[in-house]
Structure formats: structure tokens, C-alpha cells
Amino acid sequence: MKFFIDTANLNDIQEAVDLGVLDGVTTNPSLMAKEGIKGLDNVMAHYKQICEMVDGDVSAEVIAVDFEEMVREGEMLADLHPNIVVKVPMTRDGVKAIKYFAEKGIKTNCTLIFSAGQALLAAKAGATYVSPFVGRLDDIGHDGLLLVQQIVEIFSNYGYPTQVLAASVRHVPHLIQCAEIGADVVTCPLSVITGLLKHPLTDSGLATFLADHKKVNS
Ligand code: E4P
To answer: What positions constitute the catalytic site (predicted)?
Structure first.
């Protein structure tokens, strides 16, 4: 399973890189805004900086909503760095753009997936990744993990190469259940990745080992 970090924060990205387990990055316009990145030149420079920090795919989202503009923006993003994956929303124009990018050999991540039908459509158009939003479905009383399970099963039934990128993963149990289901990738904040480190019995066990060692070595 691949681990992507869902942030535009360079410190968090560096911390995940340093841990040695990071396979890629996802960003979105809200995450870029959270870091105060504005203006085309700054946005492009920020994506480039992320690409240079990480050996893996970096999703950069188009802002355009019509096909021609999506294509123009996506090609500009893809030209920036080989790690760039063009993130495209699940809309009619988005599906057309995914098809266009697939034919040009440009990688895509179809975002804002909330149904199995949307995921199927994106896979048929040739998306590299589909991003079902687990947490946002849970937020409205639906079962986000069930959607991930459905998509994994459908793609496996037909051998679609599109990877299931479980997004909006909010806590450790989400991540573990995505792994059990067989999602290809999860994207989540740094706190979820570092949350995997933690167990109280590890902490108390290590404290005991060190204390016992000290007793006979001091
Ligand atoms: C996916 O690529 C999105 O950036 C992200 O996972 C959304 O997560 P959120 O619902 O916690 O904002």
C-alpha cells in the first residue's frame, strides 16, 4: 500500500520524507490556501518545490471547470515536473479532460468521488487514480469505507489499471481498514501516518527494558 500525505505544508512533507515511508503527496486548492500560497507564479513554484522534495507522485489540482481550460491548465502543470499528477474534479468536463490527458500520457487523479458509478466512469476514461472521500461521506452519515470496498471490487472484476486512492482519511482506523480492503493508496495528514507509531504497550515496554538494562549497567 502506498502512503501519500495530504497537505501543502513543506515541514509536514519533509517530516514524512524523513520517516522514510512517503510515496507521494496530494494537494487541493483549500490546502494551498491554508498555506497562504496565492498567485500563479507562487503556486507553480510551490508545486515544484514539493516535487523536488518527494520521490513520487504529486497531485496538483486544476482550478478550471471547463474542458478547454482544464486541458490548458493541466498541460501547464504536467510540464512543471515529471512527478506531477493532474488532479481533475469528477464532472462531465473533468471526465473528458481525463480521457484527453490519458491519450497524451499525462497522469490524472480524479477527485471528489462519492459513488461507485463516478469511479467506474473515471476508470473508463483512463484515470491513473480515483479519490473516494472517506471522511466526507462519514460526515454526512454514509459509509465511506464501503465505497472504497465497492470500487476495489469493481476495478478488480474488470482488471482496470486505475488505482484506488482512499482520500479524506481522517484517523488511524480509517487507514487500517483501507489497507484491509486493499486500497492501492491512502492519503492523509501527517498525524495519521505518525499515529501508526503509537501503542501504550510499546512505550511502557521500552521504559521497562531501559530501566532493567540500567539496573545492571550502572
Ligand atoms: C484528497 O485528495 C483531498 O485533498 C482530501 O483527502 C480531502 O480531505 P478532507 O475531507 O479531510 O478535507
So the answer is: 87 (schiff-base intermediate with substrate)
